[in-house]
Amino acid sequence: MFFFRMIFRSFSRQFKRRLLIAVTVCLSATVSVAMLGVVFDVGDKLNAELSTYGSNITVQPKADAVVNDLYNTDGDADSSASGTSQSDPTTFLKESDTPKIKTIFWAFNITNFAPELNIHADVNCASESVDSSSCKASGVPIVGTWFAKTLHMDSGESTVAGMDGMRSWWKLDGSWPKDDSAQGLIGTTLASKLGVTKGDTVTLYKTTADGSRNKQRITITGIYDSGDSDNNAMYIPSSTTQVLANLPDSIDKIEVKALTTPDNDLARKASKNPNALTQDEWETWYCTAYPSSIAYQIEEVIPGSVAKQVRQVAALQGDVLQKTQAVMVLMTVLSLVAAAIAVANLMAASIGERGSELALLKAIGATDGAVSRLMLAETAVISLVGAIVGALLGSGVAQIVGHVVFGSGITMRPMVFVLVFVLLTLTVLIASFSSIRSILGLKPAEVLHGR
After folding, report:
1. Residue 439: enclosing H or E segment and its boundaries?
2. d(Cα 444, Cα 307) in Å, to the nearest integer?
3. Which end of the chain has fewer surrounding CB within 10 Å, N or C?
4. Tens digits of per-residue pLDDT, 319-359?
5. pLDDT (0 to 100) of residue 18
6. Which of 65-69, 73-77, 128-132: highest mean pLDDT?
7. Are 240 and 147 in contact, with CB atoms under 8 Å apart?
């Protein structure tokens, strides 16, 4: 009872100093919970943010992948559409195999995908509002694709895939074409060259491999600005492109947008040679949403394909993630250091003011250990209150950061609170150490006589 009466008396005195300790711990807990909460959740948020900038995995025929590796070409999206490749593809995948992407282990991480058939065709205007004599272009890049195609899976589920979700950064004047129609989009550069606007009709001419000359009338539903050389191209439905080029059920690339886990040493080792992994490494890699793991599983379901991650996106993701986490961890460390210094100074000042009280306790028989436990208990109770309040405030701050930066809330994991409380406990103990040493050095006779 005496011990608890002393704690009560201690709380009733020096209120401001105790309040400062509680506020210091509260602020440190707030910063630590907020920053670590974001650190543990920033990977998924960053993936979602970067996924708005297009695909991070491309799938192409195995023969094309060998050529790309041989001549050190990246084969990334839009190379054909932008006009950097003037030849039509000679190896193909089956468009009918594309929906199989949603059957892999990480199917729910595949947020969108779109097949492409990249060809070149001659364009003539067929609109009365446009001078057809000057509205001609040869070798125009034509991309046959899906725009917002509804797929009905064997599992009974349905999904929508296509460029509508893959090109969210495009500035579109008009509307997206309908799949399996005679509609299309035209880039701003090509539209300006031809002098066409949305609502106009153009005619595409294509000489096929058997020497026949096919044509297809296309109604322009919109003009897009991609911000790059892709503005020289036209996008039309894949089925229409296949008829024009006499290439039924053929595509030469699939763009895939997937939520992935940033690469680490295991993922980099697997991307070089999955067969070099041990059984445990294989299971960990296969059951983690690494880009290389998802790409490998896509290759398993798409015959004759090679799936590769877009290195620029993967590198950007890993680099930004590491820097973001480093900044937040640094802020957490700095807040803990500041809390340790503040608590140490406040405790030292408190002991200095209460020297006669502590000396009296020792004079009437209290041991050094009992007096030390008294001070630690007092500091622990104050710090616990501050930590609990700080944890609640930190959760709120983390949600604010999530909504402001990523547009969605932060998932607070229990381990964040456990880790913060452990770190604060160690911080308070370290801060209290020097003060406890001063208690052990108190000599009751000298202090009580004012020496």
Report:
1. helix 414-440
2. 78
3. N
4. 666 777 788 888 888 888 888 888 777 776 666 666 556 55
5. 73
6. 65-69
7. no
pLDDT digits (tens, 9 = 90+) for 200-249: 999 999 998 888 899 999 999 999 998 888 899 999 999 999 999 999 99
Structure tokens that stand for 368 in this block = 């050094």
**DSSP class per residue in 116-173:** EEEEEEEEEE--TTS-TTT-EEEEEEEEEE-SSEEEE-TTS-EEEESHHHH-TT-EEE
Closest CA to 251 of 122, 104, 137, 100: 100
User: What is the distance between the alpha carbons of residues 198 and 221, in angstroms, rounded to a whole number?
Assistant: 5
Q: Is the dihedral of CA 105, 106, 111, 115 positive or negative?
A: negative
What's the rounded mean pLDDT across residues 349-374?
A: 62
Give the integer Cα–Cα distance in Å for 99 and 187.
Answer: 28
Strand-pairing partners, residue 309, are: 57
d(CA 390, CA 386): 6
Q: Which residue has the tokens 């036209």?
A: 234
Q: Are 448 and 356 in contact (CB under 8 A)?
A: yes
Q: Where are the beta strands (DSSP E) in 91-130?
A: 93-94, 110-125
In this structure, which amino acid lies at residue 338? Answer: A
Distance, CA of 386 to CA of 331 (rounded, Å): 19
- Alpha-carbon span 159 to 103, nearest angstrom: 12
